[in-house]
Write a structure and sequence with these properties.
Peroxisomal Thiolase, Chain A, domain 1; ten-stranded mixed beta sheet; two-stranded antiparallel ribbon; 33% helix; 19% strand; 3-oxoacyl-[acyl-carrier-protein] synthase 2; EC 2.3.1.179; lipid biosynthesis; fatty acid metabolism; transferase
């Protein structure tokens, strides 16, 4: 018998808040976290805007020695994971650490460190780069550092599926608990790619918006959209087997009930025409949840603000849901945060869980010009109260990766 999986802790570092609660309140209010890049001088760059993390105080989470030995993406992951652990109320003395795992994604890993150490190597010789260069750089070390810090001795892994990574990590962790391999999993994603090289690379491939107006930069489903805005940060959820959570009287945010993962097998960057792979992921997730398509009330869209993604994701939702596509609500909170790549699905799963808990759908902000190919209810500009029971969070990544999660509002048993 498949076991139930619930969310009992959350942590987030994002352009719209440095805790899960701050992020959710900003999403409810429709705050835009996009602004001029401050991490480096953009004088010779076409792209001027990003969704940067602001005023993050690391001292409640990490000491100076730990910080020096981690790339920024690992630092963000550590903060979010420690928040989620503390939020869960778990007592390490009362759990089996061998049944406690970690799955934290990163699309790019320690690119800050790669850039810094490459310059040092050019100046001083490459045998004199930092001895911590490799463990600071490699993508799995966010998960590894979290496991070491919190004593998680179960499965520890890192999904690397580009922009689908955060959702794949949560979905894979969900299955690990549901199928009996773990009782607890910290799952999510982290990214810190607002750097000269990363921004330059995405600019060169014409993926980023080059507007200098924060209100017209990340504009999902708008006819004037022209590329995504890079975001940074981390989101981590504590997933827990339901009976394990109930036995200790844990607070429960929401339940994860379905997961679909597919591949377009089509193109390195473009979604398949009509969103065929994304549609299959949604159908699989609904089937996995044991519900009907008509049960989905809200979709937190991948909604990147690129021409192809938004058009094909809209088509995918229509293919997966038929007439019900026009009855459900589908917003993109990337309009507020920008696109956090491997962390996007994680912070959006947190937002989706809170939407269910609060009965509130966050808006797609800064929407102005309708696109006839993106004609679903995208909750333009203002969020709204709604009775929500089931919600979906979509993530689609370069390489054709598609991931869909289905979450259910938690209702206490009497």
């Amino acid at each position: 018998m498949k076991r139930r999986v619930v969310i009992t802790g959350m942590g987030a570092v994002s352009p719209i808040g440095n805790t899960a609660e701050e992020m959710w309140q900003s999403a409810r209010e429709g705050r835009c976290g996009i602004g001029p890049i401050t991490h480096f001088d953009t004088t010779n760059h076409k792209v001027k805007l990003a969704g940067e993390v602001k005023d993050l105080d690391f001292t409640p989470y990490l000491d100076k020695k730990e910080l020096r030995r981690m790339d920024l993406f690992s630092q963000y992951a550590m903060v979010a994971a420690i928040q989620a652990w503390r939020d869960s109320g778990l007592d390490y003395e009362k759990i089996d650490p061998t049944r406690f795992g970690v799955d934290i994604s990163s699309g790019i890993g320690g690119i800050n460190t790669i850039e810094t150490e490459y310059e040092r190597g050019r100046e001083k010789g490459f045998d004199r780069v930092s001895p911590f260069f490799v463990p600071m750089d490699i993508s799995n070390l966010a998960a590894g550092n979290v496991a070491i810090k919190l004593g998680a001795k179960g499965m520890c892994t890192c999904v690397v599926t580009a922009c689908a990574g955060g959702s794949n990590a949560i979905g894979d962790a969900f299955r690990m608990i549901r199928d009996g391999y773990q009782e607890l999993m910290l799952a999510g994603g982290s990214e810190a790619a607002v750097t000269k090289l990363a921004i330059g690379g995405f600019t060169s491939m014409k993926a980023l918006c080059e507007s200098d107006d924060p209100t017209r930069a990340s504009i999902p489903f708008d006819a004037e959209r022209s590329g995504f805005v890079m975001g940074e940060g981390a989101g981590v959820l504590m997933l827990e087997e339901y009976e394990h959570a109930r036995a200790r009287g844990a607070k429960i945010y929401a339940e994860i009930v379905g997961y679909g993962a597919t591949c377009d097998a089509y193109h390195i960057t473009s979604p398949a025409p009509g969103g065929e792979g994304g549609a299959r992921a949604m159908v699989e997730a609904v089937k996995d949840a044991g519900i009907q398509p008509e049960d989905i009330d809200y979709i937190n869209a991948h909604g990147t603000s690129t021409s192809l993604n938004d058009k094909f994701e809209t088509a995918a939702v229509k293919a997966a849901f038929g007439d019900h596509a026009y009855k459900l609500a589908m917003s993109s909170t990337k309009s507020m945060t920008g696109h956090l790549l491997g962390a996007a699905g994680a912070i959006e799963a947190i937002i989706t869980a809170r939407a269910l808990q609060d009965g509130f759908i966050p808006a797609t902000i800064n929407y102005r010009t309708p696109d006839p190919e993106c004609d679903l209810d995208i909750v333009p500009n203002e969020g709204r109260k709604a009775e929500l029971r089931y919600a979906m969070s979509n993530s689609l990544g370069f390489g054709g990766h598609n991931a869909s999660l289905v979450l259910k509002k938690y209702e206490e048993e009497k």
